[in-house]
Amino acid sequence: MTYWTLTESDIDRIAIGVGILGTGGGGSPYLQMLIAKQLLREGKRIRMIRPADLDPNAQIIGLGGIGAPTVSIEKMEEGFEGVRVLKAIEAHTGRKVDAVLGDEVGGGNGIYPMITAAHLDLPVVDADGMGRAFPEVQMTSFFAYGQASQPAALSDADGNTLVITQAKTPQMLEKLMRTATVAMGCTACMTTAPMTGDFVRRFGIAHTTSQAWTLGDAVIRAREAKTDPIAAILAEAGGTFLMTGKVTDIGRRIDGGFVRGTLTVAGLGADAGRTLVIDIQNEYLVATEDGKRIAMVPDLICIVDSETGRPIGTEEQRYGLRVAILSLPAPALLRTDVALALMGPRAFGYDFDFVPLGQSTEPAPVAAYRADHSLTPAS
């Protein structure tokens, strides 16, 4: 078994990286970053393991926040929601959970499972089901390739906990989870059905926490060297630069447990005279210029501060911000026909098919993994 034991410095880098990969959603990573660092100061540990090192029969669950990002920055979590949903699944299945992961690496959900793992001293798998953030429960590579739609669990900051024992489809699970989340104040913690280690190894998007660390490290190193952090992000992720500009309009509303709206950015400098309009459903979905679609889901549309490279979520956007807009290619597992049915433009109600921008690449694990024979799955 190999492991990567995180430090506070690692958390700083991951927080930047998951913000970039969040494509505007997944919740702000700021609170999760503070909680994770405080747990490390209290002597708890956060251990990452590679998917390749999972026992094929290990029981893995995905943890994360569900709801509207705008609400999540106003309604703080209590901190043990993940423990409650994990224990609820263990009680229902009669089997211990061996490791956790994030269903989405983007935004605060890229750190969320680490908090539960630290409380329970469980390892976190360096993988997720999106390689980014998506607004709906069923939009993961896990569901695209056969994950069960039950049991699932939900818990809020007040301790209310719900276990869904029967959901006929992942889409119905989304509807049930979303309705309950609205009743809980539009933000809660959720887990989907347990997966085996073999399933995660085959259908998870590997090393996405490593990718987040690498992106965050590139931004920090660029800041320290006073070089361009945007160029550093693109060099690491193999993405496409779309535009630098100023936010001139942002329309946002809470609708059915989501943040929906549009963002308008007017070009600056070499991009003067250009205008991009970006559709929002928690995340940035489609970027359009002069009626032409130039980037779209499942590819990532990432917006960062044009000078510092700090990722800017949909809930933070406001008039006058100077931003750089980038597109990163979606993982290959999201570009298949079966995945596009759940996560492509038509899944969001658009009447057009996905046109990829750039070539998919596979993230590599960070160099910090070390052998540790004490990390064996629980029986």
Question: Which terms summarize this structure?
Answer:
single chain, 379 residues, alpha+beta, CV3147-like fold, CV3147-like, 2 domains, seven-stranded antiparallel sheet, six-stranded mixed sheet, 29% helix, 27% strand, globular, disordered C terminus
Cross-sheet strand order for the largest sheet: 16-15-14-13-12-18-17
**Structural class of the secondary elements?**
alpha+beta
Which blocks of ≥5 consecutive residues have pLDDT under 50?
373-379
Strand % is 25-35%
Describe what this molecule looks like in 3D:
The protein is α+β, with helices and mostly antiparallel strands. The chain has two domains: 2-208 and 363-371, CV3147-like fold (3-Layer(aba) Sandwich), CATH 3.40.1610.10; 228-348, CV3147-like (Beta Barrel). The protein contains eleven helices and 19 strands. Helix 1 (8-21) runs antiparallel to helix 2. The longest helix is centred in the middle third of the chain and has 18 residues, at 208-225. The radius of gyration is 19 Å and the shape is globular.
